[in-house]
Design a protein that fits this description.
Layout lengths: L6 E5 L4 H12 L3 E6 L4 H6 L2 E4 L7 H12 L5 E4 L16 H28 L3 E5 L12 H21 L5 E7 L5 H4 L4 H8 L11 H4 L10 H12 L10 E4 L8
Parallel strand pairs: 1-2, 1-4, 2-3, 4-5, 5-6, 6-7
């Protein structure tokens, strides 16, 4: 695998979309610094630098970026992937201040802090920031109320950064996936189980019904590798005028934009 002389930082890289992004970037020649609370054997093999870090803490994102800058010549790309929250079956009134704080710390503040730390190097190298958002920034669901709000804020942040730093050669975009075949949807305790409960259906075997339950026009969930491929396209230089955009990859889940 040849190197292309570029360096990337990926947050929330241990599994799912984050791990797929690390793999795609490494195969494309990037040296990747990957941050996660748990470093799997696969992530350790793929990343040039794997940092065990809690990105929801105030100093976590900065520690990851500092480690990358200590290892690499600079940062060409930051992928803000980490995020999430537990489903709120009881809706808005069931979400406590602590729930909101945890969701925003992990989903929004991690991106703010990582971007703040990485931007001087990204500006110097005329690089990229890619945020992994969600269709829930536009499709606000009561049982994901805090998550939806955090992802809407993340998309807005991306637009503001693109406006401020575009003249300095930096491009910032947000990718908004719909249901992606990850543990969030396929394992107990996640969005898939909450959706099954809301529909009054047993979770066992429900994964196969997710495309129909979420009204996907394609009839299939998005795969993590598809999101990773979109990251690669955005930073490839093939469409240099895409900046400040929120690119939806949702199998046709959103019927109105």
């Amino acid at each position: 695998m040849s190197e292309n002389g570029k360096f990337a930082v990926v947050t929330g890289a241990s599994k799912g979309i984050g791990l797929a992004v690390v793999r795609a970037l490494a195969e494309d020649g990037y040296r990747v610094a990957a941050g996660a609370r748990t470093i799997s054997a696969e992530l350790k093999d793929l990343a040039a630098l794997a940092v065990e870090v809690d990105l929801a803490t105030p100093d976590g994102p900065g520690r990851l970026v500092d480690a990358a800058l200590g290892e690499f010549d600079g940062i060409d790309l930051l992928v803000n992937n980490v995020g999430g929250s537990g489903p709120r079956p009881g809706g808005f009134l069931s979400a406590t201040d602590e729930d909101w704080q945890q969701t925003f710390d992990l989903t929004l503040w991690s991106a703010v802090r990582a971007t703040r730390a990485a931007l001087p190097s990204i500006v110097a190298r005329r690089g990229h920031v890619v945020n992994i958002g969600s269709v829930n920034s536009r499709l606000a669901l009561p049982f994901l109320v805090d998550y939806s709000a955090a992802k809407a804020a993340l998309a807005n942040l991306g637009k503001a950064l693109a406006e401020e730093f575009g003249s300095q050669g930096v491009r910032v975009n947000t990718i908004a996936p719909g249901p992606v075949r990850t543990s969030v949807w396929t394992e107990p305790g996640g969005t898939g189980e909450a959706l099954a409960r809301q529909a009054g259906l047993p979770f066992d075997g429900f994964v196969a019904d997710i495309p129909a339950a979420t009204n996907l026009s394609t009839g299939q969930m998005t795969e993590p590798d598809e999101v990773a491929a979109l990251v690669l396209f955005l930073v490839s230089g093939k469409a240099p005028n895409i900046s400040g955009s929120e690119l939806v990859i949702d199998g046709g889940m959103l019927k109105q934009v």
